[in-house]
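INTERNAL AUDIT FORM
Audit reference: QA-55
Scope: verify that the stored structure record matches its stored sequence.
Auditor: D.O.
Record contents follow.
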Amino acid sequence: HTRSDAMAVDTEPEEPQLYDLKGIVVHSGQFSFGHYYSFARDPISGKWLKLDDDQVSEFDLADMEGECFGGVQTTVNKWTNCVYKTEKSASAYMLFYCKQRSAPPPEPATP
């Protein structure tokens, strides 16, 4: 078979592959030092948890961007009212996904 023959035989569109985010490892710090902590979705309750050394707490997924995507943060010194912009030191390092199960194929029609 040539490549064009193989492509012509496979005419049914492939079902899209869908994945669910199950966990995130975050690195906070610099290249040469830092700290790792994780977020994981509890498979029973469906709640997200923050796992940081011996501390485990529930985590609101709405706060994920601020926790995992680096960028610039703005802080205000409460005594001087000065505004400071600094680089965030925490960024997602590794993501864990599980492939969603696809529906079973339909039963063949009987004549």
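Auditor finding: record pair retrieved intact. The chain has a mean pLDDT of 82.
Action required: none
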